[in-house]
Every structure is written in C-alpha cells, then in structure tokens.
Amino acid sequence: MSDLPPERTTPALPFAYTTLDLFGPFEVRDGKRRQVSMKVWGVVFCCMSSRAVHADVVEDQSSEGLLTTYMRFTALRGHPSQLWSDPGTNFVGARPALEELYGYLSKVDKVKLEEEAASHGTEWSWKFHPADSPHRNGAAEAAVKVVKRALRVIDKKGPFTLVELQTVLYLAANLANERPIEARIQAQEDDVIEYLSPNSLLLGRTGLKGDSGGFKWDYPFQRFQAIQGAVSEFWRRWSQLAGPNLFTRPKWHTRRETLPWATWFG
C-alpha cells in the first residue's frame, strides 16, 4: 500500500484541498410560471482531507454560471489552496446524459475560471482520469460518487423550482457531513459513543442531535413535503451506499507474522 498524497496528510483547514465534480442535468420549473422549465446542473465540492461535501446548483451552461456557483462556495467555505476537477473526457461514449454533461464541460472557459481562482490564491487544476481508473482520485472521488448516486432520487421527486432544488442539495450535503470519520466510547459505564464527523470540523459540533430518521409529514405546505420527501429518500439511499464504508476492513488492520520469530533458513 503506497503512501497517501500530501493533500490527504498535510494539516489544513477544511476545503483547503478540494475536488469538484458535476452531475445532472436536472429539470427545474420557474418559481412563478410553473409551465416554464429550464435545465440546471448539480456540483459537488469535496474536501480531500476531511471528506466533507458541499453541494450546489449551476444555473446555466456558461463559465459565468459555474463561476457564480464557485463564488458562493468560497463565500461559505473559504478559498481553497488547490482545486481539482476532471474535464470529463471519460464521459465520451457513455449514456446520453453523460454525453450532455461532457458537452457542457467542453464549453466552459477553463482559463477564465483558473484566473479568477488564482486571484484569491487558489490553484485550479483540470486533470484527466482514465475511465477505468476511478481509484486514482482517492477517497474524495468515492465520497462524491456515493453522493451523486444517492441524489438520483431528485429526478423522481421533482420537478422542483431552482430554490427548492438548491434547498434539497444543501440538506443532503449536511446529512452526508454527519457520517462518522472516527468513533470512540466516551464513558464505558454509560456506553456513550462520541464520534467525529466532517460537520465537527466545519461547525465545531455535529449538526444533528441523535438519529435524523425520517421527516414528519404534518407540515401544511405541499412543496415543503416534497422537499422533505426528497431529502428523506436521499438519506435512505445514502445510508445504504455509505454504510458499508464505515466498517473497518480487516485487510489492513489484522496483524499476521509471515514467519515465526527467529526462523533460520538452511
């Protein structure tokens, strides 16, 4: 097992080393004219050190649209030292939705984004990953993949308005940031388990108290119920996809001596 890259081991603030990935598209409705629809994209920022995630919406297929979303991200999380994103060439030949995503990425003015990021001390790198080697971007890409798979439920619950979709993404990211990074028993006699999560680093505490469970459906507003339904479905799928990754793998944690001590070869 090789050494971890510096961005995984260097002490830094959350999102100092960040990877960016886009997904979608999603169809959203106009807030006032319900019959008018438009196509938007989702974007996930993932901290390569803490695996914290931040999800948001890209409103249109332009460099300005992605840059506006990036500015919202930096206003909330701060400017990263390094930012990685994949131009998406491995999407070529995939299903139509992925081909459409690659078409969007090919229109983005990457130089403009890099210059804007550099003005705040951020090095934005567009790197290519082989289609058959998703492991090369490490745990961050794995976290992004699970979030994207769990967010597929949005298509089934929509169409939402732009603000409603953004709300669902924010709530979903907050739930994802509650997953434990490490857990320990605080008091053995009380069986109190204290755990460290990405939200512990982002907020200085956990964002939720106890098990989030499902949302109550007694709100009088139908659109609130739709948002809650989408987030509840995300939580169900997220628990199924991310849960197995929280267990310790014995492959790297079992000590075994290959030869008995003081063995001599003749």
Automatic annotation (TrEMBL):
InterPro entries for this protein: Integrase_cat-core, RNaseH-like_sf, RNaseH_sf
GO molecular function ontology, one term from the record: nucleic acid binding
Q: Where is the Integrase catalytic domain?
A: 10-206
PROSITE patterns membership: INTEGRASE
SUPFAM superfamilies assigned:
Ribonuclease H-like
Which PANTHER family does the entry mention?
Answer: PHD-TYPE DOMAIN-CONTAINING PROTEIN
Put simply, this protein is called: Integrase catalytic domain-containing protein
* Biological source species: Aldrovandia affinis
